[in-house]
């Protein structure tokens, strides 16, 4: 059956833990193990353990690897040092976002691009096509890695029990090769939760051993396994965009309030440059809509696609919405007309099945951890 779901190396383990599984971008992934609210709160206050093996790893190597990436992506990859990582976008010629990515520089001429599961093939195809004429190789490494994340304030202490790597010296958005629980891993201080934490790239055959070691190391401090459901509420509270919701091919990084990822000052041309220069100008002078946070005054939860209204007129659209365990009320991200985008704007509502529920416009993120 060609349409069978792909399974991660931890599939049997998730089932043994009683996970509720769901189809996510063609992968059978854990949605939750118990209460998603408890999982969410564990990450905010203690720690959570995630299987992220559905993410798409693409390795770019060769003498001109960095030249290729500077041409193919909107960021300035030549300024990323060995052992560091950078958040960036890959865009179409018209400036529309194909995906948001993290690029890790693993060596002098070796980079790993991590794409969203739903876009991994699209990104692989685009990089392969854009590599023409460069002395660089693009390799599909999706099957070469399992990815396990430990996130939350207790995560450095948990990981420190299992590795001699210098975690204190590992900055946010840095990655270093090391050994965790006897397993070779790329240890990255990255995450999608708004908390401190680590993402560990290992060979699939080592995934179960690593997961079990992390679970054991975290037993005393409240570590729990976490599914995709709480990952979504965590990233939403942290104001982090999700591809297919806040980011799409019909939006440029400037539309998404992420114009800072586009580096016009880098050397040479890059795909989408001309379109993005126009988009930057438009965003500065006459922005179409702005991405904002909305906090409910009532209890009803807005969902993606619901209309944002003001005085009976549609002035925007919700891109993501959920109950916020941390704030104790429903929240949403939405694109709204610039006129209504200022934090504190009241009188804005969300049309929830014909009723205009009142919301307050707030600045993103909804939640920022105390450093």
From TrEMBL:
All residue ranges annotated as the GCVT N-terminal domain in the record: 12-266
InterPro entries: GcvT, GcvT/YgfZ/DmdA, GcvT/YgfZ_C, GcvT_bac, GcvT_C, GCVT_N, TrmE/GcvT-like
EC number: 2.1.2.10
A GO MF label: aminomethyltransferase activity
EC class name: transferase
Keyword vocabulary terms for this entry: Aminotransferase, Transferase
Entry keyword annotation includes Transferase: yes
UniProt KW Transferase keyword: yes
Aminomethyltransferase C-terminal domain ranges (all copies): 289-368
Reaction equation(s) it catalyzes: N(6)-[(R)-S(8)-aminomethyldihydrolipoyl]-L-lysyl-[protein] + (6S)-5,6,7,8-tetrahydrofolate = N(6)-[(R)-dihydrolipoyl]-L-lysyl-[protein] + (6R)-5,10-methylene-5,6,7,8-tetrahydrofolate + NH4(+)
NCBIfam families, A to Z: gcvT, PRK00389.1
Function text: The glycine cleavage system catalyzes the degradation of glycine.
Name used for this protein in its record: Aminomethyltransferase
Species in which this protein is naturally found: Streptomyces bambusae
Gene that this polypeptide is encoded by: gcvT
